[in-house]
UniProtKB/TrEMBL annotation:
Region called Disordered, residue ranges: 224-251
Organism of provenance: Hymenobacter qilianensis
Gly residues bias locations: 233-243
Protein name: DUF3857 domain-containing protein
Signal peptide residues on this chain, from the entry's feature table: 1-24
Keywords: Signal
C-alpha cells in the first residue's frame, strides 16, 4: 500500500466493493422493524412486570465503518421496541438522540421512522409518527439533541422506532446502554471494527452478559486517493480530509465483529445517597486509543491530560477569559486596603462576586461571553460566575486558578482516561499562606467562601496551572460536614404532656440546606412545617440567629408544647428522641451493589434534659450503648443517667467518611438499625405510691 494512505487527510471514495462487515457470527437480527409480536399485546405476559411503567422488549444497535466524502465514517443503526404499561410510562415515547457538530462537520440522523401499535377491538392498529414530530435542541456549542415523540400512546401501547446516525467523528464511536430504569427483555449491540482502529472497550455495571462473541473477517475498500492520510494531530478528537490526487488504491483490512447481549435486565433502582445512575447502569463505552495504517507504526491519538490542560488554559471561553480582568480595579483596591489578611480578602472578594452576579441555573465548564459582560448583566452560567471570581481574586493580589470537575449528576470522572467531555463545571482554587488551599464557588448566594455546592462533591477535580506539568489532581472531599445539634430542656406533666425549650444548631452542609429551606419558605412557613412533623406540637415562640453569617452555624431557638391525656396516668411511657433524630432507616434493601455516597461526613448530637412530674420516678430506662463501624468509619454512642427528678440522655452519631463501599453497606445498614432501635427504647415512669 502506498505510504500516502497512512494518514487520513486526503482520501476520496471511488468505490466500495467486496465483502462488507457482516452481522457478527452470522446471527440474524433479534428484531424486525414494523412486525410486532402479538404476544406483546397480551397482558398476561407482563404480570411479572406489574411494578414497571414500561418494558423494553428489544433494543438492538450496531456500528460499522463506511467510507464517504474522502474519509472513514461511522454508521450507527438502532431499532427499539417498548411496551407501555402505565401512564407514567408515556415519557418513554419521547426519544432523545445525541448528535455532535464541529466546524463544517456534523453527525446526521437519517432513516428515522416510528410507529405506535394499539389493540382496538381485537385488531392491531398501527399509527405512523408524523414528520413534524421531531425537532432539534442545542445543548452546547458542539452538542445537539434530536428529539421525537411517538403518537397516540396509551396504556398497553407498543411503540417502536428506528434511525441511523452518520458520523465523521471517529472518536465518537457509539456507546451502548443495556440497562434503564425499566426492565429490558433483550438488549444487543454489534460492532464491526477494521484493524486500523484501536478502540478501548470500557464495560461497567453489575449485570452479566448473556452473549459475548467476536470473530474476524475481511472487508474491502477501494479509494481514489492522492497525497496522504494526514492525521490532524491535537487530542485525537477527529480527523479531517482533503483530496490531492486521482489514483486508486484498494485496501482489504481485517475486521473484528463483536456481539454483546443482555437478557432480562432488571430496571435500575435508585438508592439513597448515590451520585447518578449513569455511574452504575450496565453499559459499554468506547474510546479511540490509536490508529495503525498498513506499513506504519502504531500512532496514539488518545488525548492526554497535558493536552487537555493546555487546551483549556488557552480556550477562548476559559483560560483566555482570565486574562481579561481588570475592570473591577476600584472595587478590588478598596477590598485589598480593607483586608490585608489574604484569607479575609479572599472571602470579601467571594462575597462581592456572589452578590453581584446571579447563577442562571445552567452548569457548564465554559463561559458564554466576556467576564465584563457577565458582570454588567449580573447573571451567567456557572463558568461565567466562577471565572469572574477567579479573575477578581487574581486582581486582588491572590493566587487563584481554575479547577475543572464533573458534577455528581454528570457522572464519575476517570483519572486514567483523559477526556475533555469528562468536565462540565469549573470552580476556583485559592492558595493562601501556610500551604493552605481552598476551593470556592460563587454560584449560590448562601454558600460561604471555602465551601463547594454539594453537586460538586464528586471525588477529584483537575487544577489547571500555567506551566508544563504543573496542573494536578485535587481532592473535592470537603472539610465541612453535615452537623446537626439539639439541646433540649423539657418538663413532663402527670398526663404525659410536655413543654420545653430547644436550642438547635445546623453547621456545614446542614446549615446550607436549612438556609436554603428557610429562604424558600420564610420563617413562618418553616416553623409551621416543622411543627407538623411532631404530632400535637405547638411552637409559640422562635428566633433564628446567624441567618446572614454564612460561615457560622444557623441557630434556631424555640419553645414548644404538646398536650397529654385527659387525666393523670400512674405510668408514663416516654420515647422522646424520635422527635430530634431520624425516624427510619434509609437503607431498606438487604444488598447494595454500589457505594453509599453521602457527599460529606455526618455529625448528629442530641442532648435531652427531662424534668419529671412530681411524684414520678423511672421504673425502666434504656442501657448505654456504643456501636462502631469497621475501620473507624463511624460511631454511635447513647448514654442515659437519672438523678432525683431528672433524666439526661445523650445521643451522638458520627459518620467519619463521605463514601462507603458496597462491601461496607451491610455494616452501615446494621449501624442505622441498631441506632434507631436504641432511640425507640422507652423510658417508663411510675408514680410513687
Amino acid at each position: 500500500m502506498p505510504k500516502t494512505l497512512l494518514h487520513r487527510s486526503a482520501l476520496t471514495l471511488l468505490l466500495l466493493t467486496g465483502a462488507s462487515q457482516l452481522p457478527a457470527l452470522g446471527q440474524a437480527d433479534p428484531i424486525k422493524f414494523g412486525k410486532p409480536d402479538l404476544a406483546d399485546f397480551d397482558a398476561k405476559n407482563f404480570v411479572a412486570d406489574s411494578a414497571a411503567e414500561a418494558v423494553v422488549l428489544c433494543d438492538f444497535g450496531r456500528t460499522r465503518f463506511e467510507t464517504g466524502s474522502g474519509d472513514f465514517k461511522l454508521i450507527f443503526e438502532r431499532v427499539t421496541r417498548i411496551k407501555i404499561l402505565k401512564k407514567s410510562g408515556y415519557d418513554w415515547a419521547t426519544v432523545k438522540v445525541p448528535l455532535y457538530k464541529k466546524g463544517a462537520n456534523e453527525e446526521k440522523i437519517s432513516a428515522l421512522r416510528g410507529f405506535t401499535y394499539n389493540m382496538v377491538n381485537g385488531q392491531v392498529v398501527k399509527e405512523k409518527m408524523a414528520s413534524d414530530a421531531t425537532f432539534m435542541e442545542q445543548q452546547t456549542t458542539n452538542n445537539f439533541i434530536r428529539k421525537f415523540t411517538l403518537p397516540n400512546v396509551r396504556e398497553g401501547s407498543v411503540i417502536e422506532y428506528t434511525y441511523t446516525v452518520n458520523s465523521d467523528f471517529l472518536f465518537n464511536f457509539q456507546d451502548w446502554q443495556f440497562q434503564y430504569y425499566i426492565p429490558v427483555r433483550w438488549s444487543e449491540y454489534r460492532a464491526a471494527i477494521p484493524e486500523y482502529f484501536d478502540y478501548k472497550q470500557l464495560f461497567q455495571g453489575y449485570e452479566p452478559l448473556a452473549v459475548q462473541e467476536r470473530n474476524e473477517g475481511i472487508t474491502q475498500f477501494t479509494f481514489s486517493q492522492g497525497g496522504s492520510f494526514n492525521n490532524d494531530g491535537g487530542s485525537g478528537m477527529r480527523a479531517g480530509s482533503g483530496r490531492t490526487g486521482p489514483s486508486s488504491t484498494t485496501v482489504t483490512p481485517r475486521v473484528t465483529n463483536y456481539r454483546w447481549a443482555m437478557k432480562q435486565v432488571p430496571g435500575f433502582r435508585d438508592e439513597p445517597f448515590m451520585t447518578t445512575s449513569k455511574d452504575y447502569v450496565a453499559r459499554v463505552n468506547f474510546e479511540l486509543a490509536g490508529v495503525q495504517w498498513p506499513g506504519q507504526a502504531y500512532e496514539s491519538v488518545a488525548g492526554s491530560w497535558q493536552k487537555i490542560d493546555d487546551e483549556l488554559l488557552n480556550h477562548e471561553s476559559l483560560g483566555s477569559q482570565l486574562k481579561r480582568g481588570g475592570f473591577l480595579k476600584a472595587e478590588l483596591a478598596a477590598i485589598t486596603a480593607q483586608h490585608p489578611d489574604p484569607a479575609a480578602r479572599a472571602a470579601a472578594v467571594h462575597a462581592m462576586v456572589r452578590k453581584a452576579v446571579k447563577h442562571n441555573g445552567t452548569d457548564w465548564v465554559l463561559s458564554t461571553g466576556s467576564l465584563k459582560h457577565t458582570y454588567d448583566q449580573h447573571t451567567g452560567n456557572s463558568a461565567d460566575v466562577n471565572l469572574l471570581l477567579i479573575a477578581a481574586l487574581r486582581d486582588a493580589g491572590l493566587e487563584a486558578n481554575p479547577v475543572v470537575l464533573s458534577t455528581r449528576s454528570h457522572g464519575r470522572l476517570t483519572e486514567t482516561l483523559p477526556l475533555m467531555s469528562s468536565f462540565n463545571y469549573v470552580v476556583a482554587h485559592v492558595a493562601l499562606p501556610g500551604n493552605q488551599e481552598l476551593l470556592a464557588d460563587a454560584t449560590d448566594a448562601l454558600l460561604p467562601f471555602g465551601m463547594l455546592p454539594t453537586r460538586c462533591l464528586s471525588g477529584t477535580g483537575r487544577l489547571l496551572m500555567p506551566g508544563a506539568g504543573k496542573s494536578r489532581w485535587v481532592s473535592l472531599t470537603p472539610t465541612q460536614r453535615y452537623v446537626n445539634y439539639h439541646q433540649v430542656h423539657l418538663t413532663m406533666d402527670d398526663r404525659g404532656g410536655m413543654k420545653g425549650k430547644v436550642h438547635q444548631e445546623n453547621g456545614g452542609y446542614a446549615a446550607l440546606d436549612q438556609r436554603e429551606n428557610l429562604v424558600k419558605k420564610g420563617e413562618k412557613k418553616f416553623i409551621e412545617d416543622m411543627a407538623k412533623t411532631h404530632e400535637g406540637w405547638s411552637i409559640p415562640t422562635y428566633a433564628f440567629k446567624e441567618r446572614e453569617t454564612l460561615h457560622k452555624p444557623l441557630i434556631l431557638d424555640y419553645e414548644f408544647a404538646a398536650p397529654g391525656a385527659d387525666a393523670p396516668a400512674p405510668t408514663l411511657y416516654l420515647n422522646l428522641l424520635r422527635h430530634f433524630s431520624a425516624k427510619r432507616n434509609p437503607f431498606v434493601h438487604e444488598e447494595r451493589r454500589f457505594p453509599v455516597d453521602f457527599a460529606a461526613p455526618f455529625d448528629e448530637t442530641v442532648q435531652l434534659n427531662i424534668s419529671l412530674p412530681a411524684g414520678y420516678e423511672p421504673e425502666e430506662m434504656p442501657k448505654p450503648a456504643a456501636v462502631k463501624l469497621p475501620e473507624d468509619g463511624g460511631v454511635f454512642t447513647y448514654q442515659v443517667a437519672a438523678s432525683p427528678g431528672t433524666i439526661q440522655i445523650m445521643s451522638r452519631m458520627t459518620l467519619r467518611r463521605a463514601v462507603y463501599s458496597a462491601e461496607e453497606y451491610s455494616y452501615l445498614r446494621e449501624f442505622y438499625s441498631r441506632m434507631l432501635a436504641k432511640h425507640a427504647e422507652q423510658i417508663v415512669l411510675k408514680k410513687k405510691s
